[in-house]
Protein kish
Amino acid sequence: MSALFNFQSLLLVILLLICTCTYVRAVAPRLIDRNKQGFLGLFWMSARIGERLSPWVSMACIAMAVTLLIQ
């Protein structure tokens, strides 16, 4: 089933996108920062969300991991 039709899978994809973009921006900031507008700006916005809301994002990742382990 596609991640678009399963809400839990959609949340997992969004969390992975945020975490990946935040990590890539920490390692290679120019790679993310040069594309702030357009479709690739989505990655810049995801990195900003990961930086600013990192405690909440980490709690969401832990909750998602627990949910996946229980199932």
